Amino acid sequence: MTDEARIPTRPTDSGVEGDRPYLLWLPDGEKPHPAMLILHGAGSRKENHADFARACAARGWAALAYDQRGHGASEDEMSPGALADVGRMAAFLAARDGVDASRLCARGSSMGGFMAIHAAASSASIAGAIAICPAGEADLRRGLRSGSLEFRAGPDARDALDAWLGEHDLRDAVELMGAKPLLIAHARGDEQIPYGQSEELFERAAEPRKLILVAGGHHRSVQHDAELQEVALRWMERALDEEL
Questions:
Q1: Quick one: pLDDT at residue 1?
Q2: What is the pLDDT of residue 5?
Q3: How far apart are CA 73 and CA 158, in angstroms?
Q4: Which pLDDT does position 7 carry in this prediction?
Q5: What phi and psi, each to the nearest 5 degrees, are found at residue 48?
Q6: pLDDT tens digits for 10-26?
Q7: How many CA atoms lie less than 13 Å away from 119 in the CB half-sphere?
Q8: Quick one: 32 exposed, middle or buried, by C-beta within 10 A (0-12, 13-18, 19+)?
Q9: Strand partners, 101
Q10: Were 35 and a residue from 22, 62, 108, 170 both cysteine, which residue would form a disulfide, CB within 3.0 to 4.6 Å?
């Protein structure tokens, strides 16, 4: 059987955990497996990141993608509780048979990158983060006020989100990650989040750290680039092995 034939094209499991609809991919091979929690961006949903989940499983990672509040099959509104959801879903993934809880990371794009960094900074259960074109608080507050962030949230929920975002700073969160591995990737042609913000985050990060800037592209191009997905996973594997 070829390597390609072993790649799970469909999730191993799906369901709802604590109001969060999820898809889970479990790899074949020797256990325990490192694990990746996949966090989508604003206006997206878990199914949109199945390509990265399959790439994870092909390299021996367990991968779980879920719908954040106000997205996809979720029935609630987007709210500040979305950050705590990351920790809860990490615990759910860590408890699955064959998962190495000490090597559980978060990978997010745009708003998901924001969540991945903040979760790694605030939760001992997140060992490292991959942030793709991560949005900052100012970007998200701008989107809230303009109505360009495509998620379900009424006026009260949006006011609560705006106030919550005003109390956080992604640059501080990067520093609070300490020695946890952080990989940031960003397209120079990103029309929504300036790549200079990722350069500033990288400068504030401790080792091990890696910054990938891609010529051209747009806001969504890096997250679905199969070659960059492999690069990110290989780098995180090495960084985690060095930490242990």
A1: 29
A2: 37
A3: 20
A4: 57
A5: -70, -10
A6: 899 999 999 999 999 99
A7: 34
A8: middle
A9: none
A10: 62
pLDDT of residue 6: 53
pLDDT digits (tens, 9 = 90+) for 13-68: 999 999 999 999 999 888 999 999 999 999 999 999 999 999 999 999 999 999 99
Quote the tokens at residue 214. Answer: 């891609």
Query: Which of 201, 141, 192, 197 shows the shortest CA–CA distance to 165?
Result: 141
CA–CA gap between residue 40 and residue 112 (Å, rounded): 5
Is residue 21 within 8 Å of 73, Cβ to Cβ? Answer: yes
Using DSSP, state whether 231 is helix, strand or coil.
helix
Question: What pairs with residue 38 in β-bridges?
Answer: 65, 107
Number of other residues whose CB lies within 10 A of the CB of residue 97: 9
Tell how far CA 108 is from the center of its chain.
Answer: 2
Task: Give the residue from 146, 139, 91 showing the smallest Cα distance to 112.
Answer: 139
Those residues of the chain that have pLDDT short of 50 are 1-5
162: burial class by Cβ within 10 Å (0-12, 13-18, 19+)? middle
Q: Is the dihedral of CA 95, 97, 101, 104 positive or negative?
A: negative
Asked if the peptide bond before residue 8 counts as cis, ω within 30 degrees of 0, the response is: no
The arrangement of strands across the sheet holding 209-214 comes to: 13-17, 20-25, 62-66, 33-39, 99-109, 128-132, 182-187, 209-214
